[in-house]
Amino acid sequence: MNLGNIFEVIKNWILGDGSQIVILLVVGFIIYKFIRPVITKIIRKAVTEDPHLTKEEEVRREDTLIKIVTGTVKIATIIFVALMILSEFGIDIGPLIAGAGVVGLALGFGGQYLVKDIITGLFIILENQYRVGDVVKIAGIAGLVEDVSLRVTILRDLDGTVHHIPHGDITTVSNMAKGFSRVNLNIGVSYNTDIEKVKEVINRVGNELAEDPDFKENIIDAPKYVRIDSFDDSSISIKILGETKPLAQWEIAGEMRARLKKAFDEEGVEIPFPQMVIHQDKK
What pLDDT tens digit does each residue of the chain (283 aa) get? Predict the structure, then answer.
């Protein structure tokens, strides 16, 4: 068979029995390739704004929904096109569908944990408990949410370790990046310190930090003196609180500590530390 005959056979196949398969492949490719922009546009318009969330948080919430819906539609498209192509080749897909139902029923008894994972995942997404980009604590593990599917959440902790957490194992979620975050510091000062002076220094340093161009965009309420939190063995513990934008609390808290150390040194405010006195037996 020469090259011309081969092209003629392919042409006849495409114009005949193969036309439906080609159409299915083209339609499937178009859906697979362009479904994300369509879903993105729909979700961006359909999701109502939450007054308790910032614009950045809303975007992360929408991006998480877009990722999950897009992945689900793509998988469904691949399965549908594959079944239709098999049908065009003359394969009866009825038994395949029925068989899949029987297999699914059989797996259902052993796959109850999978169902639990998916149902819990749906509620997590619908209730907007957390999104990709949030820092959360789940099942005793804290980290950055890198991915969320219907079945599992992927966290990366501070050490860079990646954790895959099935949604069925989640009973409590602590979200450190929803709405706002808080600077929560306890600073110890010696018992002979003038507390009013400490209060003035803390509030001054907090206000200066909130006015600094490098930090003010992330500060909602400047860190300030709140109260004497406790009397410890060698110090008086002072409580300092402030509010920041989500995920900025650690940077602001670290800068506040550095500035307080400098200010306390300049003002002669002592930050005590435990000391041990050793008596040597001269015998």
Answer: 555 565 665 556 555 556 677 777 787 788 777 777 887 887 777 666 665 566 676 777 777 777 777 777 777 788 777 777 777 666 666 665 555 554 454 445 445 666 777 778 878 877 778 888 889 999 889 999 998 887 889 999 989 999 999 988 888 899 988 888 899 999 999 988 899 999 999 999 999 999 999 998 999 999 999 999 999 888 899 999 999 998 899 999 999 999 999 999 998 888 887 666 566 666 5
Chain centre distance of CA 152: 12
Cβ neighbours for 38, distance < 8 A, ≥ 6 positions apart: none
On the 0-12 / 13-18 / 19+ scale of CB atoms within 10 A, 148 is buried
Provide the number of structural domains found in the chain: 3
Phi and psi at 241, nearest 5°, equal -130, 150
Task: Kindly state whether residues 147 and 169 are assigned to the same domain.
Answer: yes
**Is residue 146 domain-resident?**
yes
Same-domain pairing of 10 and 79: yes
Residues 10 and 99 in one domain: yes
Determine, yes or no, domain membership for 119. no
Instruction: Note whether 161 and 197 are same-domain residues.
Output: no
Query: Containing domain of residue 168, as a range?
Result: 129-175
